[in-house]
Amino acid sequence: MAIKFKGKHAFNQNDVKMKEQFYSICSNIESNLVKVNPLLLMVTSLKQTKSIVRATAHLALALSEQGKRVLLVDGNLREPSLHHLFRMDNSFGLSNLLLRGKPTSGEEWIKIADNLFCLPTGEMLYEPSTLLSLETFPHHIEKWKQQFDIILFHTSNSLHAPDAQIVAQHCDGIVLAIMEGRDKLEKISSMKKQFERAKHEITGAVIVK
After folding, report:
1. Under CATH, to which class is 2-208 assigned?
2. For labelling, which of 25, 36, 63, 83 has a CA lying 20 to 30 Å from the CA of 203?
3. Using CA atoms, how far apart are residues 81 and 74, in angstroms rounded to an integer?
């Protein structure tokens, strides 16, 4: 299922009309993956834009407003963005956790709204693919699964770096963010086939106008 999203407007997490656009895709995702709990999802694209970042944030908000406890993780270590959108401190985040070792009992995320929490990228200390391939990544995911209903990863460009494919290995479904009029059909098809060959399920799409 795909929805169209006008991403040119400034981000406003209290914009009811904007969030309503994402309720249909939330229902579609949950109906396709009804037996999965907790649910791990990722949003990926051909090229990150501010509109796609906003779309990811609105999707997370919509999921959280359906009574789900949601952790939004900025997994785009090449182009950190969610800390700018939510005006968060980015001195500590995912990259620091991956290098730290085994999870601790503390909470590393920041509360954004009722039921919605965000983990930024943190400082960029090493090559992103190397960090995401560390064995500490699945350990932290297991910890998050004990505390959240949905974990939503925002990831980097899918065709030009392996990062998104690495994150996809841990996810139950993928949401493609497509820029209308900019993303070429053949590249969208290549991205889709890339995930399908690896047997990753595409559960929805957001077409950003």
Report:
1. alpha beta
2. 83
3. 7
Q: How many helices (H) and strands (E) does the chain have?
A: 8, 8
DSSP 3-state assignment of 205? strand
Lowest mean pLDDT among 38-42, 94-98, 180-184: 180-184
User: 100: which 2 tokens?
Assistant: 């730290």
Q: Judge whether residue 180 has pLDDT over 70.
A: yes
Contact between 84 and 11 (Cβ < 8 Å): no
Domain boundaries, the chain: 2-208
Residue 19 exposure: Cα atoms within 13 Å on the Cβ side = 13
Residue type at 128?
P
* C-alpha to C-alpha distances, 36 to 111, 116, 141, 150, nearest whole angstrom: 24, 19, 15, 10
Please give the Cα distance from 14 to 4 (Å, whole number): 19
Angle between helices 16-32 and 50-64 (to 10 degrees): 70
Is the Cβ–Cβ distance between 71 and 109 less than 8 Å? yes
98/108 Cα distance (integer angstroms): 12
